[in-house]
Amino acid sequence: MNIVIAGGSGFLGKKLTDHLTNQGHSIYILTRDASNKPVLPSVHYVQWLHEEAKPIDHLNEVDAIINLAGESIGSGRWTKQKKTNILQSRITSTQSIIQLIEQLPIKPKVLVNASAIGYYGTSLSKTFTEESESSGDDFLSNVVEKWENEAKKASNYGVRVVFCRLGVVLDPNEGALNRMLLPYRFFIGGPLGSGKQWLSWIHIDDAVRMFSYAATQPNLEGAFNLTTPFPCQMNEFGKTLAHVLNRPHYLPAPSFALRLLLGEMSTLVLDGQKVLPNKAISSSYPYLYPTLLSALENLLKK
């Protein structure tokens, strides 16, 4: 397949590019600056500016577009400007993708658009699946709803659209796990907040493979939760992490301190949600690391 990726230079995009090229696909990465990029077999860098979204002559036949573009939600406090950037970066890039689809003489079969389980809102007691409506009126749920509404416009051109709603992606070098590791390495790890909040997580390798799965399964459409079938409460997560690292789990980080330190971004670790990947389960997606213990042992004992 000829697959176009927007946001291919990010931590998830790089791993996805490696996976897809290993599967024999040709990858076209949209970038603001195509100069001085590494020369790799089956990977092509295409000059592309969100603001212009001009036709790209040599992309005549695209099978799939994967949109990962957007400013990271986990870097820095959510100031007013940061929140504006988080929303606008996603809306602008997705609008440009729709313009690109409009201009392509042969339309792609599918648009796989990154999204997030933040769509569902937070809860200590509810269980969310792809059939659940948004129950949140917080910043993240509003961002995701607007983001998906833009991506949905690809269906006007006969393109299958999949919203890959990512849970918390576990990778030892990037994201939430990297930050959670530090106190345990110094023997001061413990539950965050009450410890009762749910963590709906996914191993980075499964996240990558599920994006590929979404692109290649013709019957998969709409919301697609990228989470494990076995979410856990934060206290269980901490205990399992301590077990794998052979460290204690006893010193809690109180909610008020985390909210003071992180501001509104503290919702990522304090206000959880229990999300189940019903579509992945029903379609028999073969998880590499379905359980937390298997995932952490793979990530931390390499």
UniProtKB/TrEMBL annotation:
Stored CDD domains: SDR_a8
Organism expressing this protein natively: Halalkalibacter okhensis
Record family assignment: Belongs to the NAD(P)-dependent epimerase/dehydratase family. SDR39U1 subfamily.
Entry's transmembrane regions: none
Boundaries of every DUF1731 domain copy: 253-299
Stored InterPro entries: DUF1731, Epimerase_deHydtase, NAD(P)-bd_dom_sf, SDR39U1
Record-linked SUPFAM superfamilies: NAD(P)-binding Rossmann-fold domains
Source domain of life: Bacteria
Domain NAD-dependent epimerase/dehydratase: 3-220
PANTHER family: EPIMERASE FAMILY PROTEIN SDR39U1 (PTHR11092:SF0), SUGAR NUCLEOTIDE EPIMERASE RELATED (PTHR11092)
Matches recorded under NCBIfam families: yfcH
Protein name listed in UniProt: Multidrug MFS transporter
